[in-house]
Please model this.
Amino acid sequence: MLQPDDARQAHSPRWNPDDHLLTILNDNATHHGSDIAMRERDHGIWREFTWSQYQEHVLAFAAKLEEDGLRQGDIVLVLGDNRPALYFGMLAAIALRAIPSPAYPDTTPDELAGQIEREKIRFAIAEDQEQVDKLTHVATINPVLRMTKIIYDDVRGLQYASDTNLVSYDDVLKAGRERLERNASLAQSLSTRSQAEDIAALLHSSGTTGAPKGIPLKHGHILHGVRSAAQAGYFREGEIHMAYLPIAWVGDFIFSIGAALALRFIVNVPERQETSQHDLREIAPTLYFCSPRAWSNMLTRIQVGMDESTPFKRRLYNHFMSFAIGVERKRLEGKSPGFLQKLWLRAGNVLIYGPIKDHLGLSRVTRPYTAGEAIGEEVFLFFRALGLNLRQFYGQTENCALAAAQSPDEVQLHTVGRPFPGVEIKIDDSGEILMRGDNVFDGYYDQPEDTAKTLKNGWLHTGDAGFFEEDGQLVVLGRVSEVVHTAQKERFIPTYIENRLQFSQYIRDACVLGEERDYLSSIICIDFQAVGHWAGENNVSYSSYAELSQHPAVYDLIESLIQRSNQLLPDALRIHRFINLHKEFDANDGEVTRTRKLRRSVINKNYKVIIDALYSGANEIEFEAPIVYETGDTGVLKRELTIRDIAPLGSQ
Model:
């Protein structure tokens, strides 16, 4: 339900059932042509594109793609980090009723080969030489998968490429402009060919249990999702947004293309992923989303900076932050701060909270969000204590990532809020979350069996377990498919416990074990940056991740964190033993997806010896880890890993 302030300011985008992304782009260019639509930081200088220029790039690009043979229904691979050229290229493909299929920039050649083969891809838009090299490598191994055309944005390293299927973005743009000049009616034709029922993007599932499934989202799905979110006050017209999340992730397509077009956002593209936090300060967005891990990393940087400041600044920081966190904790319990507390919060805003937000680039953010997994209480309270009304939302690729969100005045740590207008959610007898609405997709790409399992009787079976609180707020527990039982038939969801462990900034990944076992245990991957900083503050010396992970003091730290989590769990579901892994779980090894979701079958296989040792009573294990050298040669690295029992609660 909209709160009074949101109800007054919520914005419903211009809406027509026949609208598609290109008609909205055309409307923006016609009525707001001189307004800034996108900005890109290039070599330290911000380059701006108006709505008119945005449309001109899209139509010129589309004109040349059509001339080169791209046709309705063709799938176009999009590969690289966020760049205006890649966004324009996706819209150009959409204008031709072709389908952009973005991939994560760190996707391996083997993974690309699978996607190219499954989707019969012949056209690709790539960011730079690194991505072009992957595509040419795929073609070298399997010539059948050779691209008809690879268009690249960054010319460095490719100026003298002789391959006839390689062409620069600028050359495509130039040729497209010339074609538009020769054909006066072509621009209008390109702007109006699409239909609301056309597929606007082919996105993909995380692939935790196998090859990622293709998820086609139509124009209508996307615009309905954006509209309902806007009605709930989630988006507002004219937001300033930073496009830094992977273009293959549904959230980026919805925020940076769907909502940006429908509500005329100013989309800002950082120079590089490595500079995004620095660029954030210059952008100063009004809307900001990042994952719980990213919020946690931001908090770690603040804490590191304060630890390196003067004693006076540290005392000031510790006092005001402790005060604000205490006030915020009570506020979430429904207790409003008194007059003197409000006065002291204002003083803290001048001295601490405001300067920290300004330093981070969050001083203008009025709608900060987090989603994807549970966020730690410490992290959540810290940023709300700064004065950011941080809220959680819930969604999946299958429903355009827009399903439910917390309203500004109904924020709780354990919920994800209420359904957006036009979205229905219910819980079936098994505890699974079901959903329906015009934002829900129509089925997986070329996978009728999976579609039939997911879409039943008009409802999307999300695969998530959850329940509604008495006040109507939704709680998400984890994946239904991950519900398992101990040897004593105690039911539990590993991800629920893992998320609680990962509330701590010191734990990057946790894999909870215990299916058909007598007790639960866990494999822990420490966060190297956070634990490294902690080690420096506590005089713990180390020379590598592996050495740090095995230090007895680090084991003490992790044990204390597991004990804290155990306090919130029933006796039968408490963790009894754990091991600190000598390395992080690696997406390139298939242990996690590109969005860092665990692939349990791979972990069970790769670390079977460790898992067996956790349940054998052993206190240490010599683990042989295979390694691949830069030359391509392989070898084996032996590591002595400690296994530790968790002290029972109340024993220390």
Remarks:
- The longest strand covers residues 634-645.
- The radius of gyration is 26 Å.
- The CA atoms of residues 395 and 401 lie 4 Å apart.
